[in-house]
Design a protein that fits this description.
With about 350 residues, the protein is an alpha+beta fold. The chain is built from eleven helices and nine strands. It has a seven-stranded mixed beta sheet with strand order 1-4-5-9-8-7-6, with helices on both faces.
Length: about 350
């Protein structure tokens, strides 16, 4: 084939296409014609393009330009005809013009996802990085490496979902602490967001599956003052100017341990069902990393110290937005979710 023959074939396609496209009467016929003209498998233009390698090398550029020009022209005609056929099909009696317009729902990121993103951004500014771990976790990482005694009630079947062998659905994101300490040498500052699973009742303040954000700092000379300063800074950044308090607590993997509360966002401290009439909402548990946890990761606990915290983004969302029941977050009700559109 010569260049003139190639261009003549393109011109013939361009001349035939308008009348053929105008003649199609429905969308099925339009689809068949499109395949016949520019279909990738066996369309006329595809057949023409298949002869391109037969041309002398110096003519191929000009030939390709001619074929592309025809393709654009034909596809424009096809698109215009498709729009006309679609409009005609809709006005053929199926469309009731007397019906009111349906409301368009506005999509939005879930409030828990927004909370996780904001928490991550606040701690990123403080030099924290993201670390992840498996949800199907080995019992050693979930319990023993975190200093849980063998008779701890959290290891019972009524609290933990056991899988095959030595695997459980992780009950917290704390196993990521040990995995990170095994993999990297201090100094370490990480956030570990992810889902956790427990045999909890589904009520106004509990859910069996929920998101958690774990934080860990390990280095030489880390103290409880570093913990309080960092978490108080976070609370004021996240909630605005708010009141916080730390209460002594117990966790196997931290010593000393403390729970951090913020003023209830629903009742502003006067007492309600969300805060259990205390005026405060617990947002996280924290403490200094237990030396046994540091040693289980193969590090020297006399050289390194650290602090950690675990935060529930769902409860944080409740406190921030004044949501009275955690179950609302699991309903996927667009009327509720569209309130959080940014």
């Amino acid at each position: 084939m010569t260049l003139d023959e190639f261009k003549a074939a393109c011109a013939a396609l361009a001349a035939d296409a308008p009348a053929q496209i105008a003649a199609v009467a429905d969308l099925d016929a339009w689809t068949a014609l499109r395949n016949a003209l520019v279909g990738r498998a066996s369309g006329r233009l595809t057949d023409i393009m298949a002869t391109l390698p037969q041309l002398p090398k110096e003519d191929r550029r000009e030939a390709g330009q001619a074929a592309n020009a025809v393709k654009l022209e034909v596809e424009a005609l096809l698109t215009a005809r498709e729009s006309g056929l679609s409009a005609a099909a809709k006005s053929g009696g199926d469309l009731d013009l007397t019906m009111p317009e349906r409301r368009r729902w506005v999509g939005a990121a879930h409030p828990v996802s927004q909370v996780i993103d904001e928490i991550t951004e606040i701690f990123r500014e403080l030099g924290f990085t993201i670390a992840l771990g498996p949800e199907a976790e080995h019992t050693w990482y979930n319990f023993q490496a975190l200093n849980f005694p063998d008779d701890h009630p959290a290891m019972d079947l009524h609290d933990t979902l056991y899988l095959q062998g030595d695997l459980v659905l992780r009950t917290h994101t704390s196993p990521v602490q040990v995995r990170t300490l095994q993999q990297y040498a201090p100094p370490i500052r990480i956030l570990a967001p992810g889902n956790v699973h427990r045999r909890d009742p589904f009520d106004a303040s509990h859910a069996p599956t929920f998101a958690q954000v774990e934080g860990l700092v390990v280095d030489e000379g880390i103290t409880f003052a570093d913990l309080k300063a960092t978490l108080t800074h976070f609370a004021n950044r996240f909630f605005g100017s708010t009141r916080t308090r730390f209460r002594p607590s117990y966790f196997p993997f931290t010593e000393p341990s403390a729970e951090m509360d913020v003023l209830c966002g629903v009742c502003k401290g006067s007492g309600c069902s969300v805060c259990k009439n205390s005026g405060w909402v617990e947002i996280l548990g924290s403490g200094m990393v237990h030396p046994a946890v540091i040693e289980s990761a193969g590090l020297d606990s006399t050289k390194y110290t650290g602090w950690a915290f675990g935060l529930g983004p769902a409860r944080t969302a409740l406190a921030r937005h004044g949501i009275p029941d955690i179950r609302i977050l699991y309903d996927s009700d667009v009327r509720f979710l569209e309130q959080f559109a940014r």
